[in-house]
Write a structure and sequence with these properties.
The chain is of the alpha/beta class. It folds into 2 domains: 7-150 and 205-264, Rossmann fold (3-Layer(aba) Sandwich), CATH 3.40.50; 166-196. Helices cover 33% and strands 16% of the residues. The chain has helices at 14-21, 23-28, 47-55, 89-99, 115-128, 166-181, 188-196, 207-221; strands at 37-41, 60-65, 79-83, 104-109, 130-139, 239-244, 248-253. Helix 6 (166-181) runs antiparallel to helix 7 (188-196).
């Protein structure tokens, strides 16, 4: 990041300023001199928009916030602010049509931090309005572990939580013992694990944390789907890279779409 641009000088809170000077710089530095379009969901009073305008000197900077549009000192006319909600897909479509008809290069979600809303805006924008090879960033996803006023769908993290219950664990041990004692039987271990995992990919299933883990599933599955693994919508567009930090998750869209539609290879 250019030494002359200090995020703290824009009135950006300390945690976000650290992200801007850290991992963001790692991913954004190659875009500095290019003509790009950037959309930020959740901009409060516009401090980050002013920072992006000065950092990306040839960019179109667009912000969305539920509060009324505010006045911002922008004589170059690079910044455009809209009022509304991130889950309003019709509004998102209008923003793209008016400001980035070819799609956005970078999209940043620093909005409600509510999993249901973040999920709606992500899949709509990622699938339809993020350019191939583009970058989608979701900030403060870790708030999903700690319920507070602005994150009503969060849940406390329990350090002693188990992926498999004690009852299930004992059953699996019994099956493994039977498999060793009676080798002529079919592979009971493999059958048991298939039964335990046949209905879904087990993970934290609520709020921001559940949504982020859905993205991990999407990245891991790529263009391969398994029966009853979910809606499969995300399989229509590839995630080429996924970088998770404590503050931000960075999702890169594949430069090339999958060669075949997953629908062609999924058996009911």
């Amino acid at each position: 990041m250019p030494e002359s641009i200090d995020p703290t000088g824009y009135g950006i809170e300390e945690g976000k300023a650290a992200c801007l000077a850290g991992a963001y710089e790692r991913f954004f530095s190659l875009l500095v001199n290019k003509r790009i379009s950037l959309l930020e969901l959740g901009v409060w009073e516009g401090a980050s928009l002013r920072f992006w305008r000065d950092y990306f000197e040839n960019a179109t900077i667009v912000g969305l916030d539920r509060n009324p549009p505010f006045q911002i000192n922008d004589p170059q006319g690079m910044i455009h602010v809209y009022q509304g909600y991130q889950q309003d897909t019709n509004l998102l479509d209008r923003i793209v049509y008016e400001q980035a008809p070819d799609g956005f290069d970078v999209i940043i979600d620093d909005c409600a931090h509510i999993g249901m809303f973040a999920r709606i805006s992500f899949w709509h924008l990622f699938q339809n309005h993020l350019k191939p090879g583009g970058l989608y960033c979701i900030e403060d996803w870790g708030t999903g572990y700690f319920p507070w006023r602005k994150c009503p769908d969060a849940g406390y993290y329990k350090a002693k939580s188990q992926l498999i219950s004690n009852k299930d664990r004992l059953f699996i041990r019994l099956v493994m013992w039977l498999s060793d004692a009676f080798p002529s039987l079919p592979s009971l271990v493999a059958i048991t694990f298939r039964l335990f995992n046949r209905s879904k990919i087990r993970s934290h299933e609520r709020g921001m944390v559940g949504f982020i883990k859905e993205l991990v599933d999407a990245y891991a599955l790529g263009t391969i789907a398994i029966p009853r693994s979910g809606s499969g919508r995300y399989l229509l567009y590839g995630i080429s890279q996924l970088h998770i930090t404590q503050g931000v998750i960075y999702i890169f869209k594949s430069a090339e779409p999958p060669p075949n539609s997953p629908a062609d290879s999924i058996s009911a």
